[in-house]
Design goal:
Chains A, B: Its cofactor is pyridoxal 5'-phosphate. Chains A, B: InterPro entries: Aromatic_deC (IPR010977), PyrdxlP-dep_de-COase (IPR002129), PyrdxlP-dep_Trfase (IPR015424), PyrdxlP-dep_Trfase_major (IPR015421), PyrdxlP-dep_Trfase_small (IPR015422). Chains A, B: Keywords: Decarboxylase, Lyase, Pyridoxal phosphate. Chains A, B: This is Pyridoxal-dependent decarboxylase. Two copies of one chain form a homodimer. By secondary structure, the first copy, chain A, is an alpha/beta fold. The first copy, chain A, folds into three domains: 63 residues; 251 residues, Aspartate Aminotransferase, domain 2, CATH 3.40.640; 105 residues, Aspartate Aminotransferase, domain 1, CATH 3.90.1150.170. Chain A is built from 15 helices and 13 strands. In chain A, the strands form three sheets. The first copy, chain A, has a seven-stranded mixed sheet with strand order 1-9-8-7-6-2-3, with helices on both faces. In chain A, strand 4 and strand 5 form a beta hairpin. Chain A is globular. The first copy, chain A, starts with 9 loop residues before the first helix and ends with a helix. The interface between A and B is large, with 177 and 177 residues.
Chain lengths: 470, 470
């Protein structure tokens, strides 16, 4: 008897899969010909389950028609919206192998857990954390922040897992901090009123204002729990002075967490960008993503915790049905379920491992460095076209307004219109954000396919769109 | 200029990928020849990054040698340890396509979000939730439980996101509840002292004890926040009387959450198993996994929330750089980042969608039903071999002791030894758990490849291992 959930005809399935693989590789190889396009209006109907069910070539045909064309656009060389990585050909390898071995990374004794340890250890070294530091791969920085702050809270209140959170915890971050921090503080039951937003200047949290606020809170009977530094702010690409934050964290005995979602990867960039994240090695925890500036397939992030014991103490809890053993499948200590939220865990390490083994670390360093160079170039080209930067380009992010001579309202309307027009035409993808009350165009370059020619062509398109709008 | 993170030679890459795909398909098609095997002792060295870096065939060769053989065993037809799904050939399709489109499911306007809505909607219908109910795909039930209980808390305390959790929340579950509930309550800052474990009999939480405890807590000034019902307990496969729990939740005005990690899928099984989860449609929220009893590749779970407004209110928070738009890439409302922890999200829907479209819903119903039949058969075969069930087989889980005539200590040692021996020999995978002070053998059958012959052969192997041990 065979399973009714295995293909009835393996040869036919094999042929279908090979044909599809060919089309997938072609789509990746010809990424520049496939900009984002809006999903069809009847998308909900097209994707409804059970309306077209069949085995064999029809699924593949539906994928060709309905799925492959309606990607998110971030594979294209002129996509710089939000902070979205490009993806890699090695992800195809990881995708096939991951489906074949189908490992649960929550625990037990199998190769994927060893591989995850290898990826964490490689990252630990790059971030300058000591040997024996701990980590767990997660969907992304948002979840990594939850994990890190739960560790921070346990240090501040050893009884939190049994008794619940005490009143009066406070956290500190620059006013431009990503809202992942706010959401994490909410989820943990601390409440976002506890988040003190410290004014920043030149993209950095003010050190003396931070120290003052901590002391003031403590004098008022509150309990400072964590400072959240930012390596790469999402709006403007700013970097906190992490050494200054580490000094304060140490003096004030407060946990230092760093949101390094993309900016942590300046650690492997060339000068001068590498120095932006100096001091990150002094943090108690770092949250970062591989799917942004390490370019791998979504989703793939990491929580890195300096002290393994603190990490484990914040999450470990295994009942009888999950007891480990010295040998056999129940072996393989430690189990990752003791270091995070999820008990069932897919295989994220494979994507990073395949990428690094296929292309080598050096190629990533070069790509990250080149992205910073392109952002700098974009800043220059913005100015040379009579447009205005709304913030200096310090890393890979460029925010600008197409017509600085108009009123803020008119600029906002114009920039929004240009972003939309270029998305719809497929010429380039900028997203928008608000700086000094102006909705501006924003490029975050975490795209290994982008070239100088792409930057120049995109800014020419901005000028043209501005002309046709104005 | 081409990217240094695209293959230098696409034709060579294409050839490598096709060769690897062939080997992946063969490994899946011949799953019965690939039981779990222990990773090599030098696994840490083998997986270390950068020691063997190369492009081209060498990565593929390393995958053959070091990765494919050391899977977690759950693809094999005689794997019944813990609760781990088998995986599907359609996952290969999903893996390739997911790597190609590389969508971020946090938001914006692209096909993958529509597909996720289709998967959620299909599941909503199966679970009997009303139209307009809400959901979000997550790693698994652990994270889905966090999301559901955060919604429950917001109902009980509207100010929790700003002010943090109030003191005195209490939650209720059967004494055999999965520790995902305990971990969620800890993470939320409520503290596990707030979890009242209600004694169960015949695998069901005692209804009158539950009602009494809620009233007592309320009389003591506490705030009952959520009842957690279980559809499929992890140890014994028991099902709470969900209609009884829904009555109490309604009378007492308390949120009813159901942990349906695997057991929720009895909704698509035949009688009599289907009725086990009757009443689940009355819950306020359900957490469930697709990677268990819907057999898809890890990880893949779902939080289903009855009231979309309550779901959104618990998580939505979008700053300027994430503002939506009517058109273009920033369109596509609602965005999934407003319904859960993660802002960056991979594409889990694709696995479920490809599986259902390739095999059809009916094939899943049959496989789930057959798994229950096999567990019942296993129970009969255990007894006919003079061994003892430690709990009646009610769904897909069978717990037994190989030699009921020995002391509890001796039984525990014997059962542990048998589980280990069979894992190491590759004959079958049982895990162990504790029932009535005895470490017993435990099979959770969520395996579409298992047959009657597998069950009989595995129990013969148990008897043989027992003989050679005793």
């Amino acid at each position: 008897m065979t399973s009714n959930l295995d293909p009835k005809d393996w040869a036919a399935f094999r042929s279908q899969a090979h044909n599809l693989l060919d089309r997938c590789i072609t789509q990746i190889a010809e990424a520049q010909q496939h900009p984002w396009q809006s999903p069809p209006e009847d998308a909900a109907e097209r994707y409804a389950i059970g309306r077209h069910q069949s085995e064999g070539n029809e699924l593949s045909a539906r994928i060709d028609e309905d799925v492959l064309p309606y990607h998110g656009g971030n594979t294209h060389p002129r996509f710089w919206g939000w902070v979205q990585g490009t993806g890699l050909a090695s992800d195809l390898i990881a995708g096939m192998v991951g489906a074949t071995i189908n490992t649960n990374g929550g625990g037990r004794n199998h190769g994927a857990n060893e591989m995850e340890r290898a990826v964490i250890d490689w990252t630990r070294v790059k971030m300058g954390f000591p040997e024996g530091a701990s980590g767990i791969m997660v969907a992304g920085t948002s979840q990594a922040t939850v994990i890190a702050l739960q560790c921070a809270r346990l240090r501040a209140q050893g009884t939190v897992r049994s008794e619940g959170t005490q009143a009066g915890f406070t956290c500190y971050a620059a006013d431009g901090v990503h809202n992942a921090t706010r959401k994490a503080i909410e989820l943990l039951g601390i409440g976002h009123n506890a988040l003190r937003l410290i004014p920043s200047s030149d993209g950095q949290m003010g050190a003396s204002a931070l120290r003052e606020q901590i002391r003031k809170d403590r004098a008022n009977g509150l309990c400072p729990m964590a400072i959240v530094g930012t390596a790469g702010s999402v709006d403007l690409g700013g970097f906190d002075d992490l050494n200054a934050l580490a000094d304060i964290a140490s003096e004030e005995n407060v946990w230092l967490h760093v949101d390094g979602a993309f900016g942590a990867w300046t650690r492997i960039a060339d000068a001068p960008w590498r120095s932006l994240s100096d001091g990150i090695e002094r943090a108690d925890s770092i949250a970062l993503d591989f799917h942004k500036w390490m370019y791998v397939n979504y989703d793939c992030g990491l929580a890195l915790i300096r002290d393994e014991a603190e990490h484990r103490a914040a999450f470990a809890a295994r009942p009888a049905y999950l007891q480990g053993a010295d040998q056999g499948l129940a072996g393989g200590d430690p189990w990752f379920c003791d270091y995070g939220i999820d008990l069932s865990r897919g295989n994220r390490a494979l994507k990073v491992w395949c990428a690094l083994e296929m292309f080598g670390e050096e190629a990533f360093s070069e790509a990250i460095t080149r992205n910073c160079e392109l952002a700098r170039l974009m800043g220059q080209e913005v100015i040379s076209r009579g447009m205005a930067l709304l913030s200096p380009v310090t890393s890979n992010i460029c925010v600008f307004s197409a017509d600085p001579d108009q009123t803020p309202e008119a600029q906002s309307a114009l920039n929004s219109k240009i972003a939309l027009d270029l998305q719809l035409s497929g010429e380039a993808v900028f997203s928008t954000t608000d700086v000094n009350g102006i909705t501006c165009l924003r490029a975050a370059i975490v795209n290994h396919r982008s070239t100088k020619e792409d930057v120049i062509a995109a800014l020419d398109a901005v000028v043209q769109a501005k002309g046709s709008t104005g």
